[in-house]
Design a protein that fits this description.
PAPs-like, globular, Immunoglobulin-like, membrane, Purple Acid Phosphatase, chain A, domain 2, single chain, 3 domains, Calcineurin-like phosphoesterase domain-containing protein, transmembrane helix, alpha+beta, Calcineurin-like_PHP
């Protein structure tokens, strides 16, 4: 009897050991990346039943609206989204539930995309929503809205493309930073969320799956999306690879974008503004040096909303001042002249119109420099800060190609930034994937 009892105990212990080992293996970022790719391959072979392929991702869409996008593996005519708010401040009444039929876009036979615009949400401090497809609803997700006097926490990341395993490590550090079931109030993604916008596998494996595995922030923290050079097709044709990021103002016809490939084309207008607590953010499309964008930038920089904001920020994917790149492509292929309009045209305006902080990606490492706004005035004490945050997972840029003598901090590894603003202070905290602080500064008003 004792013999069989010991065998039974050993069997249970072995099963526990195997389960623990499998659990630890599945926590490895490289294994989870390979598993995501394998499941994506199964999807492509039609070996899964109809299901939600991508859970909802929410983008900011103006001050009182949000854009939500999700995807299923087969079409459905009944896709919709239900949204509601907490009690409306001031009138003592409960906000009603809104049911919105989703707009449908077939990407291919196994990728069926749905989108809904939520709003206007008015003065609500909480917005709740859930999507429905095939008579099945997702979990309820909630968005927290802060006013300008409240502390607003913004996660800042960029350039996770082609590095899903490293991206997962960064996301793990982000989750520890915010703690448990806490979420940032918004995400500022400064571009290049994937390598090739025309590859559905890149969207899934490099962006959506890591975000889902890393805590699902994209469901609850509205993303302010800054387009990078990998996120959409430079041709700006109607079918230009903006499969999941066509949230800003739709498609419009334009003229004179300055490049032959887009002279008579159409493109998704990404440049826009967003309010994040007491900060006002101007988002620019570095890939689109158009007269329209230049006019928009000058108008917004001088606007009452921007000038009266406690903190004034510009987000543009390609930095005005790049120091690290591939030496061959930089010098021999002329990439040192790529998007020079950002430095020669836009940065002049940044300095002239009291921009506090310019946030960029593109260069795959971290740099931050706080310099005098007026380079001709030696005694000037009015600073402007430039930050490059291109280290969410992509292959690092380690070779120096320029030296602008302006960056106070350089860090050549993967990282993220926690940006916090309230009515008196902007706090910038940069951490590496191990959670160690690599840089921090405050702007106090």
């Amino acid at each position: 009897m004792r013999y069989y009892f010991r065998r039974w105990l050993l069997l249970i212990a072995a099963q526990i050991l195997v389960m623990c080992t499998l659990y630890l293996i599945l926590q490895d970022s490289q294994v989870r990346t390979l598993l995501s790719m394998f499941l994506g391959w199964l999807d492509g072979q039609g070996l899964y039943m109809c299901k939600i392929r991508k859970l909802p991702m929410v983008y900011e869409h103006g001050h009182e609206h949000y854009y939500v996008v999700w995807e299923t593996s087969c079409p459905t005519n009944g896709a919709s989204l239900e949204w509601w708010t907490d009690d409306v401040p001031g009138d003592g009444s409960s906000a009603s539930h809104h049911f919105v039929k989703a707009q449908y876009k077939m990407i291919d036979k196994s990728h069926h995309r749905y989108s809904v615009v939520i709003g206007p949400v008015g003065l609500a401090t909480k917005v709740h929503y859930r999507s429905t497809s095939h008579s099945k609803s997702t979990a309820q997700y909630s968005i927290t809205r802060r006013n300008g006097a409240e502390l607003t926490r913004v996660l800042v990341i960029a350039d996770n493309q082609n590095g899903p395993a490293e991206f997962r490590k960064v996301l793990s550090s982000i989750r520890k930073h915010y703690g448990g079931n806490n979420f940032p109030d918004a995400i500022l993604h400064v571009g290049d969320g994937l390598q090739d916008s025309r590859k559905l596998s890149d969207w899934q494996n490099q962006l959506f799956s890591p975000l889902e595995d890393g805590g699902g922030y994209q469901h609850r923290s509205p993303t302010v999306f800054v387009p990078g050079n990998h996120d959409h097709d430079k041709a700006r044709t109607p079918n230009n690879g903006n499969l999941y990021t066509d949230m800003y103002h739709g498609i419009l016809t334009t003229d004179g974008l300055g490049e032959p490939v887009v002279m008579n084309g159409t493109y998704h207008r990404f440049f826009h503004t967003a309010s994040l607590g007491s900060a006002r953010v101007i988002v620019l499309d570095s890939e689109c040096p158009s007269a329209e964008q230049s006019e928009f930038l000058e108008r917004e920089l001088q606007s009452e909303a921007f000038q009266s904001a406690r903190f004034r920020i510009v987000a543009v994917h390609i930095p005005p001042y790049i120091e690290f790149w591939n030496p061959y492509t930089w010098n021999e292929r002329g990439e040192k002249h790529w998007r020079e309009h950002i430095r020669l045209e836009y940065d002049v305006l940044f300095r002239r119109h009291n921009v506090d902080l310019v946030i960029s990606g593109h260069q795959h490492n971290y740099q931050r420099g706080t310099v005098r706004r007026n380079l001709q005035s030696v005694g000037s004490s009015d600073p402007i800060t430039y930050a490059i945050v291109g280290g969410a997972g992509g292959e690092l840029d380690l070779e120096r190609v320029e030296n602008w003598n302006m960056y106070n901090v350089t860090y050549l590894d993967h990282h993220f930034v926690s940006l916090e603003v309230d009515d008196r202070q902007l706090r910038w905290l940069a951490k590496n994937k191990a959670g160690t602080i690599i840089d921090q500064f405050d702007i106090v008003r």
